[in-house]
Amino acid sequence: MESNKKGRERRIDSRKAYSGHVFFATKSQLFEGFLKNFSQHGLFIKTHEMLILGEFITVALPYLDDKQSKVQGQILWQNHEGYGVELTKKRNGKNFKLLKIEARSR
């Protein structure tokens, strides 16, 4: 969990656990990883790819109405498993509700 210097949580809303493949791209390259959790404002992508903090990426969210929905975000932090991404463009709440239903069924 991410926290500031005083140990307080900086997330706006809670994350929902999820386990599934996800594709994401920088301006120059396409990657594959695992979506471990998500919220209305962010994602955690498990990958061993070398990405740059502050870089903007496009993520294709899986299995939403039998098609992929793309969201844009910025890489804010990393750990030994992957990267925390803050979503930067307006999110479609319906897409995240469907992803939450998919996560509960696993």
What does this molecule look like?
It is a single chain. The chain is mainly beta and 106 residues long. The chain has a single domain, classed as Thrombin, subunit H (Beta Barrel), CATH 2.40.10.220. The chain has a six-stranded antiparallel beta barrel with strand order 1-2-3-6-5-4. Strand 1 and strand 2 form a beta hairpin. The chain is globular, with a radius of gyration of 13 Å. The N terminus and C terminus are likely disordered.
Topology:
Layout (H helix, E strand, L loop, with lengths): L15 E10 L4 E9 L3 E5 L9 E9 L2 E12 L3 E6 L5 H12 L2
Helix content percent band: 10-25%
Number of strands: 6
Major beta sheet, strand line-up: 1-2-3-6-5-4
Write the H/E string, N to C: EEEEEEH
Number of helices: 1
Uncertain stretches = 1-8, 100-106
CATH class: Mainly Beta
Overall structural domain count: 1
The CATH architecture assignment turns out to be: Beta Barrel
Which structural class should the secondary elements be placed in?
Answer: mainly beta
| Largest sheet features | 6 strands, antiparallel, barrel
Compact overview of the structure:
By secondary structure, the protein is mainly β. 11% of the residues lie in helices and 48% in strands.
Keywords summarizing the entry:
single chain, 106 residues, mainly beta, Thrombin, subunit H, six-stranded antiparallel β-barrel, 11% helix, disordered C terminus
